[in-house]
Amino acid sequence: MKFIKTSIPDIILCKPTVLNDARGYFFETFRKDELEHFLAEKIDFCQDNESKSVKGVLRGLHYQLPPFAQTKMVRVIKGSVLDIAVDIRKSSPTFGKYVAIELSEENKYQLFIPPGFAHGYVVLSEEAIFSYKVDNYYDKASERGILFSDDFLQIDWEFPLNEIIISEKDKVQPTIQNADLFQ
């Protein structure tokens, strides 16, 4: 696995080594030892999640506050999505900036997202199966979100906003200026 720092260095693009032959392909989706060596810190993923969505579904921007903040490692098993991680650490030099990476079954990329980032994605293919690991359990009372169309963030979702399918909850999330954030 090759690890690459993005424009926000705490967000890591993970590119697996894929072995292809006439039978298909094989690759390691996760190697704790390699990731910990690259990060120079321990990672303890405790929960895996998976969702299936159709084209145009936007899920996000979500996060949990401490002490239930989560590190995530996300990937697409089927289809493709535009994955977004927004820096919501008020003291960060990249506060309010975001990383956008297409994750797909073809490129098999993964994104490592530490606490302090809001996360979301929009489905670009006819359907997508999205999978991710987290290092803290879901806690409803700690769950927060930011409005996906917040003018301050200027996120280019690379998808027509009038065609986006979004939950009622995500339609009414606060802007980043009005959200509970990380210090």
Automatic annotation (TrEMBL):
EC class name: isomerase
Keywords: Isomerase
Pathway: Carbohydrate biosynthesis; dTDP-L-rhamnose biosynthesis
Catalytic function, reaction form: dTDP-4-dehydro-6-deoxy-alpha-D-glucose = dTDP-4-dehydro-beta-L-rhamnose
Record function comment: Catalyzes the epimerization of the C3' and C5'positions of dTDP-6-deoxy-D-xylo-4-hexulose, forming dTDP-6-deoxy-L-lyxo-4-hexulose.
NCBIfam families: rmlC
Family membership: Belongs to the dTDP-4-dehydrorhamnose 3,5-epimerase family.
Subunit structure comment from the entry: Homodimer.
Name this protein carries in UniProt: dTDP-4-dehydrorhamnose 3,5-epimerase
